[in-house]
Inverse folding.
């Protein structure tokens, strides 16, 4: 989960799915692996480009960072992290996407750093 992939084209072409997953992360952050990294004011309604700039570009040290978003058939994954030297962590979560309905399936991976 190191670095950020350019998921912007995928997020733009799957906007409803991307926004739905962000909303799920915000609403269910206490139940999602790595959810404590999700900020209480996570943007879900801004332009996709604005979300990408805010959560994936620039200096990311110590900040919530969306590192990847993919969609394949009826599955979507989002990877996020708090990118910080020796103290960061994050998760990759998978969702089913069926007729506009987004359902959390589980965690594909999690990272935790300990100091």
């Amino acid at each position: 989960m190191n670095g950020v992939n350019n998921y912007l084209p995928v997020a733009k072409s799957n906007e409803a799915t991307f926004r739905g997953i962000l909303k799920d992360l915000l609403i269910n952050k206490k139940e999602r692996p790595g959810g404590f990294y999700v900020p209480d004011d996570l943007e879900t309604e801004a332009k996709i480009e604005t979300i990408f700039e805010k959560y994936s570009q620039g200096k990311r040290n110590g900040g919530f960072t969306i590192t990847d978003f993919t969609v394949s058939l009826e599955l979507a994954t989002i990877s996020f992290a708090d990118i910080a030297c020796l103290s960061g962590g994050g998760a990759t979560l998978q969702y089913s996407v069926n007729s506009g309905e987004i359902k959390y399936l589980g965690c594909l991976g999690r990272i935790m750093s300990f100091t």
